[in-house]
């Protein structure tokens, strides 16, 4: 498969309008990865690109992955299957749906085979008894982990940094499984500082996951892992935990969208941006610093009750 099939032009970088940043003399900009592709958007494209290429090269016809009923990753894998000619299997956490979520309805419309698993089995993933049945039933498949984070996903995310053509001091992203930030860290080569905002409570456990993903990436590249010191996690901006919101977060989204004229989701990018704005307010950055925040997409999961502009 030619690399060209996966070519996307660099995503734009645009200023963020924020009176907080203006007062602090900080240049705050956003890299609009949400605009990569309408369905395989943001970090999903970055994470899937080399996985899809690898699956094609190795002759796989089917992709299998895992996710919750509102998973951006599952949505993107289903769309990628249709676009690049793979069958797809989605193993879903939980069976309690009277009606499929909009994400799962979309996945089904892309012909993804949905397997709804009890939560206990889901926790075991490929070690579960149900997985043996899947292996017996389907000939072979290329497996992509939950959230899409593996060494090839990290490689894809390093390209976010390669596309940046302006000088900057900081780059920031939302963190779930840690694959995206691992790619940013590797792409930065220990220059500049990477700030990760975990969207789950107790995000400190992520540090070792990120280290592990970096190790896998450098192993795959046949290089020794450098002793990176250029990244930090800011764990105070989960707003109650994964997929939780607070009135404060909702009013941040409304204000931010009005001032900036583009949409952000409440699960990932809004928490990251609200966190960065708060850090600016607290004087974390000096006058003249440039911060590049990454819009990692996820708009398919944006709450419908957040008004459309
Ligand atoms: C829209 C969006 N942004 C950010 C993230 C966090 O990325 P990661 O899981 O690589 O930390 C995710 C989850 O994958 C996501 O769906």
UniProtKB/TrEMBL annotation:
<keyword id="KW-0663">Pyridoxal phosphate</keyword>
<feature type="active site" description="Nucleophile">
    <location>
        <position position="71"/>
    </location>
</feature>
<feature type="modified residue" description="N6-(pyridoxal phosphate)lysine">
    <location>
        <position position="44"/>
    </location>
</feature>
<dbReference type="Pfam" id="PF00291">
    <property type="entry name" value="PALP"/>
</dbReference>
<dbReference type="InterPro" id="IPR001926">
    <property type="entry name" value="TrpB-like_PALP"/>
</dbReference>
<dbReference type="InterPro" id="IPR027278">
    <property type="entry name" value="ACCD_DCysDesulf"/>
</dbReference>
<dbReference type="GO" id="GO:0019148">
    <property type="term" value="F:D-cysteine desulfhydrase activity"/>
</dbReference>
<protein>
    <submittedName>
        <fullName>Pyridoxal-phosphate dependent enzyme</fullName>
    </submittedName>
</protein>
<comment type="similarity">
    <text>Belongs to the ACC deaminase/D-cysteine desulfhydrase family.</text>
</comment>
<dbReference type="InterPro" id="IPR036052">
    <property type="entry name" value="TrpB-like_PALP_sf"/>
</dbReference>
<feature type="domain" description="Tryptophan synthase beta chain-like PALP">
    <location>
        <begin position="10"/>
        <end position="297"/>
    </location>
</feature>
